[in-house]
Amino acid sequence: MDHNQSVKSALSDREFSEASLKLSKRSMLPKFDLSSSYTYLSDPNQMIVPGFELPTTDGQPSGVYSPGSTSDLAYENSYSASIGMSLPIYLGGKLRNANTLSELALEMAEDNVDLSQADLLLNVETEYWVVVSLQEQKGVVEKSIELLTDVLKEVRDRYETGIVTKNEVLKTQVELNNSKLSLIEISNNLELAKMSLNQSVGNGILSSIQIQDSIIYIPEQLSSISFNESHLSNRPEIKLLNNQVEMSKIEKKLVNADYKPQIVSFANYTSQNPNHYAKQENEFTFNAGVALSMPVFHWGEKKLKKVQNKMAIQKAELDLDESSELITLEIRQAIFRLKESLVKLNFTTTSLEQADENLKLETNRLLEGVTTTRELLNAQLQWQVSHADYISAKTAVKTNEAKYYKAIGDLRM
Q: How many domains are there within the chain?
């Protein structure tokens, strides 16, 4: 699980969703911000007012002169610093629905982790039983080589005494060579299968790996399995789609919240120069208030967004229905294939018993001199094929068993 990239990616998505949920909850808390600024003007503008004689009501000279003055239009040094608090009071239910949306997203991320892990487990399970199968088939070929070696020795002895022809010796040698070639091929395939399994479980590709199973165990209760509607609810895909439907409904509520009154409170503690709010320069001032905003007319925007949300909900529900049908089909197929493989295993068991008995019979008959080498080689070939079919049938049962548990959402470590 720690090695697989898909699982690690799904775990990263889950951590992301956990952080998003925490952020969503904290958006309901008050926020505090600190801001400051400083401005320096090298040559501030000034307003010069010239002196003038004060006017009188009768238009005669007053003799009173007002002197000129100079006023700064800007400060050479200007600064401000403030700490503020803001707290949402009512946003039309947006924060509550956003929190619910984050919770659903986290559930979907967890379902996605389960899905990635199930895919990995099925892949490893399949590769594991391939290794077991090849390991058993290698043992069968090795036994076949031992048998053919003994037969070749017996046929050569008979050839030297003139009982059989050289052609019989060559036939036996060819069969022995074919078995040796099969052993090389199976050994190579076994090593490649081990490499693939090592890669899937996170080992080095060339790491030594020991397979514990030498005899494949088939549980008896597999023959009685049947379809159950509750299996659908266990599938991560169905859980994902159910949450997708719920998310679409929550998104509709978020759209409605955008067109409701938005009320936010605020408070600030400020010091600035110049300060147009305080009685004295450099004096700290405090202000607080409530802001209200509400959309009035947006040219039918709300109605169109509702249509979009309705279509999104409908699409999510259709996807859920379609996936439910496909997964139901997948479960039933998995059940059929598993039961078919169990029937085939029973058939191959019978064939294996017959091949074992036939090989013993032909071996004894050859030793007694009442049969030909060809008959014994045919019996040996039948024995080898029957063993191979039996091993393949057992492996198919175990692979289909894993696929069945994956189909019903119950494949676990």
A: 1
